[in-house]
């Protein structure tokens, strides 16, 4: 079975994941690679419906229900889109994956991060990224970027800044625990400089 390359981008809201994912996609496509660009939550039709619930439902969603909704989105996404693409030998560039659940659902302090991870590992039958790019940025700087560009905040974005500080710390701890998989970049650097650093690392995988 041919095997593609699975690259995920992680980071707080407003860290520039989408911009970097798009620049990476353009570069790989220009190199003649077949690229699938996707995201969680919401990378499939079912996922779009789950995304609307987890991000925009009015009123509370219990923490375990929220974790299961992200995991449900992920299970369907991996089974129907990500695995088939990797089996074809494509490169998958994905905004957010299991690390988002561990960092965000774990950072609420109610859920055990390892249990959150366990649910997603079950959901995905253990699919691991080949590379995870963490766009690390001070939570207040990231919030400033969002404030400039946004009119509608989702449920997570509306959390207090200490929540986002905890998310950032959780991400950095995940990266420190798994340095072979993670590339941590300073998301405050100029866009082109970041893109070049990311390209160098990805080139090493191909
Ligand atoms: P994202 O699509 O990156 O939002 P935006 O397009 O607004 O930048 O992610 C939506 C939110 O979902 C983000 O605040 C993080 C949160 N999230 C979790 O809490 N757990 C998860 O497992 C995932 C995938 C996302």
Keywords:
206 residues; binds thymidine-5'-diphosphate; 14% strand; alpha/beta
Describe the structure.
By secondary structure, the protein is of the alpha/beta class. The chain has a 5-stranded parallel β-sheet with strand order 2-3-1-4-5, sandwiched between helices. The mean pLDDT is about 95. It has helices spanning about 15-30, 45-55, 65-90, 100-105, 115-125, 140-150, 160-175, 190-205; strands spanning about 5-10, 35-40, 90-95, 130-135, 180-185. It contains 8 helices and 5 strands. Helix 3 (about 65-90) runs parallel beside helix 5 (about 115-125). Thymidine-5'-diphosphate binds near residues 39, 40, 41, 101 and 154.
Strands of the biggest beta sheet: in what spatial order? Answer: 2-3-1-4-5
Succession of helices and strands: EHEHHEHHEHHEH
* Ligands bound, unique: thymidine-5'-diphosphate
Largest sheet: number of strands, sense, barrel closure:
5 strands, parallel
Share in helix: 55-70%
Shape: globular
β-sheet strand percentage = 5-15%
Please give the radius of gyration in angstroms.
16 Å
Compute the separation of the termini in Å.
17 Å
Number of E-state strands: 5
SSE arrangement:
Elements: E1 5-11, H1 17-30, E2 35-39, H2 45-56, H3 63-88, E3 91-95, H4 98-107, H5 113-124, E4 131-136, H6 139-149, H7 161-177, E5 182-186, H8 191-203
Parallel strand pairs: 1-3, 1-4, 2-3, 4-5
Helix pairs in contact: 1-8, 2-3, 3-5, 4-5, 4-7
Bound molecules: thymidine-5'-diphosphate.
Thymidine-5'-diphosphate (TYD) binds next to helix 4.
């Amino acid at each position: 079975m041919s095997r593609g390359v699975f690259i995920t981008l992680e980071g707080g809201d407003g860290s520039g994941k989408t911009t970097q994912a798009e620049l990476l996609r353009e570069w790989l496509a220009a190199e003649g690679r077949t690229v699938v660009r996707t995201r969680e939550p919401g990378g499939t039709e079912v996922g779009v419906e789950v995304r609307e619930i987890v991000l925009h439902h009015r009123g509370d969603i219990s923490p375990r229900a929220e974790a299961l909704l992200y995991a449900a989105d992920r299970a369907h996404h991996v089974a129907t889109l990500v695995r088939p693409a990797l089996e074809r030998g494509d490169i998958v560039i994905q905004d957010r994956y299991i690390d988002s659940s561990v960092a965000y659902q774990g950072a609420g302090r109610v859920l055990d991060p390892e249990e959150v991870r366990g649910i997603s590992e079950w959901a995905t039958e253990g699919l691991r990224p080949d590379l995870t790019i963490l766009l690390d940025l001070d939570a207040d700087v990231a919030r400033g970027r969002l404030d400039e560009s946004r009119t509608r905040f989702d449920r997570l974005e509306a959390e207090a800044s200490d929540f986002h500080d905890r998310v950032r710390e959780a991400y950095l701890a995940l990266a420190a625990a798994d340095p072979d998989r993670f590339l941590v970049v300073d998301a405050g650097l100029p866009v082109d400089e970041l893109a070049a650093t990311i390209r160098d690392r990805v080139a090493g995988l191909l």
